Amino acid sequence: MDNNFKISKKTKIVSLESAITDNIKPGNIVFLGGFGHAIPFYSSHEIIRQNIKDLTICRSGADILFDQMIASGIVSKVIFGYIGNPGVGLSHSFRKAVKDHKILLEEWTNYSLILRLHAGRMGLPFIPSKILQIGDMPDNIKYMKTIKCPYTDIDMSAIPALVPDVAVIHAQQADEFGNIQMWGVDGDTIEGALASNKIIVSVERIVDNSEIKKFPDRTVIPAHRVSAVVELPWGAYPSYVTDFYSRDDKHYIEYDKISREPDLLNDYIDEWIRNIQSIEEYIKLIGKKNLKELQNGMCGLKSNDE
Amino acid sequence: MMNDCRTLSQNARIAVLAARDLQDEKSCFVGIGIPSDAACLAKLSHAPNLSMIYESGVIGTLPYSPAMSTGSPSIAYNSDMITDSFTVFGELQAGRIDIGLLSAAQVDAFGNLNSTVIGPYENPKIRMVGSGGAHDIACLVPELIILMPHDSRRFVNDVDFITSPGANKEFAETRLKNKLGSGPVSLITDRARFYMSKDGWKLDAPLAGYSYDEATEDLPWDVGKGINNSITISDDLFNAIRYLPYLEAKN
What we know:
The structure holds 2 protein chains of 2 kinds. Chain A has helices at 16-23, 41-49, 64-71, 92-99, 110-122, 139-142, 189-195, 209-214, 249-260, 262-274, 279-286, 288-295, 301-305; strands spanning 29-32, 55-62, 75-85, 89-90, 104-107, 126-129, 146-148, 155-160, 166-174, 180-181, 198-206, 219-221, 228-231. By secondary structure, chain A is α/β, with parallel strands linked by helices. The longest helix of chain A is centred in the middle third of the chain and has 13 residues, at 110-122. By secondary structure, chain B is of the alpha/beta class. Chain B has one domain (5-249): Glutaconate Coenzyme A-transferase (3-Layer(aba) Sandwich), CATH 3.40.1080.10. Helices cover 26% and strands 19% of the residues of chain B. Chain B has helices at 10-19, 34-44, 73-76, 85-93, 134-140, 169-177, 212-216, 235-240, 245-249, and strands at residues 27-30, 51-54, 58-59, 81-82, 99-102, 106-107, 113-114, 117-118, 126-127, 143-147, 184-188, 192-197, 200-206. In chain B, strands 2-1-5-10-11-12-13 form a 7-stranded mixed beta sheet, sandwiched between helices. The two termini of chain B are 26 Å apart. The interface between A and B is large, with 60 and 58 residues.
């Protein structure tokens, strides 16, 4: 084909504000990406700022982003395998919401939640598995059906599909058309994105389509599945992004103390979420010294150059 | 001279005792904290070919600094492979990962574990983190090792919620019938090693430096007299602790 031939393709790049307004509605089931790595903190904070209520949020292993969403009062239900502050302790807002009966639980395990997303991703109503047959089951699992294997007669759990309305994830890079490239720890991020009807992606940087074509095997979500792309450098802080910056463990430890006290937590949410108008303000709040340290930290720029 | 384990921190004692149960060339599914520390110690001493698999999808790593999450930079950094959680849990379900290591808030005589709630599920006194991958590991892995600090509140006759199922008669029958993993084989505390019998946990032996009374203090179960006098820690394993300075620092 003539190399000068150009196809005019639609850009998926939008403002964060419209990415969230146009794609997330009250009552939606929202999958939030990031298994320790590349957690979409900043774009999820926009959901809090827009006060989109009555949400169901889901993923397998959830950390303090879930705690912040629950504390902000916009979550009516969680579908999960784990909610905590990994390596530190409990999710205090989750604990309080359960105690006060302010949140509905649909509790699974990490593997069953991943299988639910995988079934959703494949367009199947369920996936058989050996788990969830012995032990105590929360009510939602008690209603789960079992199935006899038609070949071996062995009893198995029929793990039902989960199809979120929208996934919010963070990745390293995308082109303007919405080809998403992510590397490092995935966990269930791609599973959850491809299980969802719509996908919103924030990235550290927008690159030219020719960059994408250099390593197309790094593309984890193709453009036609993506609804919106937003460039948000540092958008996964205080989690980390491989080849960009390390995890701010201190922030997670500090959050444990803050989230125990409602007044402190309210101030934190004002400072880090409600009063923030732009990603530039978020980066400013992280602080110059901290930015430098995190960039040079493990899995950041320095460790990669060594 | 015998290595003096009483000089070690509580976490280090659990980790060295558990490391003994991890043989070379096995694969093990590990969580963050003492399970990961135990596997590191085994790998740095008698089991250089031990394969460590994290639920985040990371395989073949040796974190020298403490990781807070299985997806943390120190787990991902310097690893041999990063795949997704779906793949590693699939390997587990297919019976291709040999050993699992778990900890929890409560354990009973048959190795049922609770990491979900203290109190009733609908109205808990303390709502904890939930299963994560713990239930899945307990159901699927051929050999499960349970790690617990010696704290009498953790050892109970009935756990408040069975997050991760153990090896009582009913569960053992289902495990066999539906081809699940066979469940808990050993319980490691910072004072002793116990093994699973058809009547529940029995004492193998106290850790060197600890007495029978200390090893069984406040346990609500009849764990017998022990089959060995004491467990000594090899020089290799004892010396490996210095590679994980954070293990000594904690407590």
